[in-house]
Design brief:
Strand content: 15-25%
Distance between the termini: 27 Å
Number of strands: 3
Order of helices and strands: HHHHHHEEHHHE
Radius of gyration: 20 Å
Shape: elongated
Largest sheet: 3 strands, antiparallel
Structural class: alpha+beta
Strand order of the largest sheet: 2-1-3
Length: 184
């Protein structure tokens, strides 16, 4: 969750509501009180949503899967204008990633591919920026890890040589810290 947390810290001005009730109310407001849409997004029945709205049941007592979907759905559309503005600025100015992590890669037999702690600062390729923000909206840490690895991979190869970025298979593990910022 370090990459996701770093992106949220940089590109969102506040976090989602802390309590399940607050999250439920935020989702209900987002759907303008439409219990059918809320039920569809949470994967529960409309009647269950109506009970939650009336206070006959407590959202806190829901299944862990439902609470997980609730958090995911609220995060997906949290501060859409702030995130869109940050994405636009990142596209215009560029995005830089700085990290200290164990970086390993797949390599030819007889060479070392053991991960070593490295401090790297690289620019995120412009074509990856929309994917970074999409993964942020979806809360997809695995996708963000893959994109961060692609962003730092130029450190390990020289363009025009036999070993290119796709052949190296860069992996980031044991992330000590990671930060994102606009270029320049």
């Amino acid at each position: 969750m370090k990459i996701l947390s770093a992106l949220r810290a940089k590109f969102q001005t506040r976090d989602i509501p802390k309590t399940p009730r607050g999250r439920f109310n935020a989702l209900l407001r987002r759907e303008k009180g439409n219990t059918a849409k809320v039920a569809e997004r949470l994967g529960i029945s409309r009647r269950q949503v109506q009970r939650l709205v009336k206070g006959e049941r407590k959202i806190e007592n829901s299944k862990p899967e439902t609470l997980g979907r609730l958090e995911q759905e609220v995060r997906k559309e949290h501060q859409p204008r702030v995130t869109a503005k940050a994405q636009k600025e990142a596209q215009e100015r560029g995005l830089v990633i700085e990290t200290r992590a164990a970086v390993g890669f797949t390599a030819d037999a007889g060479t070392t591919d053991d991960p070593r702690m490295r401090r790297l600062t690289e620019e995120v390729p412009p074509e990856l920026i929309p994917e970074v923000f999409e993964a942020l909206r979806n809360g997809d840490e695995a996708k963000l890890n893959e994109l961060a690895a692609k962003a730092v991979s130029p450190y390990f190869y020289t363009p025009g040589t036999a070993a290119n970025e796709d052949e190296l298979g860069i992996e980031l593990t044991d992330i000590d810290y990671i930060e994102f910022d606009y270029r320049g």
